[in-house]
Design brief:
Number of strands: 11
Helix content: 25-40%
Radius of gyration: 19 Å
Largest sheet: 9 strands, mixed
Number of helices: 11
CATH topology: TIM Barrel
Number of domains: 1
Distance between the termini: 28 Å
Shape: globular
CATH class: Alpha Beta
Bound molecules: iron/sulfur cluster
Strand content: 15-25%
């Protein structure tokens, strides 16, 4: 974070204007599609590049409960958000002892459910396996597990996640395959492969193990860029949309919010997106109603990962 501040000195200070006085870009919540919950930051492992700094000891975000999730599902109905999907991320969601009950509460209301997981020991406990099979039976086709596979090469995956991690995740995926679960994969473009190389590598990995996952569908094999916080990035002005021919409606914060439970906080908080869990400015309120406000793109991640994606709008 210190490196990020040094690389972008003077920028990302004022939510309304950029360092050179131009109106800053903003994004309105125009089509809420996904409500995310962070189930808690505890994780069974500690990856080199975890964006939320999860580990076996980081409980900055504590376990959310089924009752708290139900309250937000009630708010979705009350606010008439046209959300179709409830998604869960961590930490490792299956560390949360109420994960099955939480998923069931969401499925019972008719939502599609997406759970991000490393498919390792927490998911493979007997109680979680039993609960997952029961959900799959009761709500066929409504549940997707998105597995983190940083690289299809076991050695490169283990370099991020620790020796033996790939084998454990593969075992989890084989169990999901054998029990008929719908799987997706979250990979990383950290290893200097081109996108085409990455997708070809994942396709071969899926074929080898009989996984029915489309390596060429970006929603089923999601490739995330590495978050290098030391690189200087430009600020995004209101004019950038036209210059880049991009729409604010395509940003994640136009279509989703994330609910978190901070350790020691009196109330849960609703954040603009999943990418900025610790930036106070992106905490929009304690309720969905409060979180309906616009988001000022006042963070380097907004520029680098969401708007520019490698392009430049310095014209
Ligand atoms: S498994 Fe996921 S949540 Fe856990 S440390 Fe690794 S990247 Fe972070
Ligand atoms: S990082 Fe910024 S632009 Fe991207 S989704 Fe989050 S708030 Fe929106």
């Amino acid at each position: 974070m210190k490196d990020q501040l040094e690389a972008n000195q003077g920028k990302f200070q004022n939510p309304d204007v950029t360092a050179d006085g131009a109106p800053r870009a903003r994004v309105a919540l125009t089509r809420p599609k996904t409500l995310w919950f962070n189930t808690g930051t505890l994780c069974n492992i500690q990856c080199v590049n975890c964006y939320i700094e999860s580990s076996p000891t980081n409980d900055a975000l504590v376990y959310i409960t089924a009752g708290e999730v139900r309250d937000f599902l009630d708010q979705l109905t009350a606010r008439s958000w046209p959300v179709t999907e409830i998604a869960f991320t961590g930490g490792e969601p299956f560390m949360n002892p109420q994960m099955i009950e939480i998923a069931r509460a969401s499925l019972e209301r008719g939502y599609d459910v997406l759970i991000l997981t490393n498919a390792m020991r927490p998911m493979m406990r007997k109680s979680m396996q039993k609960g997952l099979v029961a959900l799959q039976t009761a709500f066929p086709g409504k549940l997707t597990l998105r597995i983190s596979v940083d690289h299809y090469n076991p050695a490169l995956h283990d370099a991020e996640r620790g020796v033996g991690a790939f084998a454990k995740t593969l075992e989890g995926m084989q169990w999901l395959r054998d029990n008929g679960f719908r799987m997706a994969v979250a990979g990383r473009s950290i290893m200097a492969d081109s996108e085409a190389q990455s997708r070809a590598g994942y396709a071969a990995f899926y074929k080898e193990h009989g996984f029915e996952i489309d390596a060429h569908d970006p929603s089923m094999t999601v490739l995330f860029p590495e978050m290098d916080t030391t690189v200087e990035v430009p600020e995004i002005t209101a004019d950038c949309w036209g210059i880049l021919n991009k729409s604010p409606n395509d940003m994640m914060c136009a279509s989703s919010r994330m609910v978190v439970k901070r350790r020691g906080a009196a109330r849960l908080a609703v954040l603009a997106c999943t990418l900025l869990p610790y930036a106070p400015e992106f905490e929009l309120g304690a309720t969905l109603e409060e979180a309906e406000k616009d988001v000022a793109l006042n963070h380097p991640h907004c520029a680098k990962f969401c708007v520019l994606g490698g392009a430049s709008c310095s014209a």
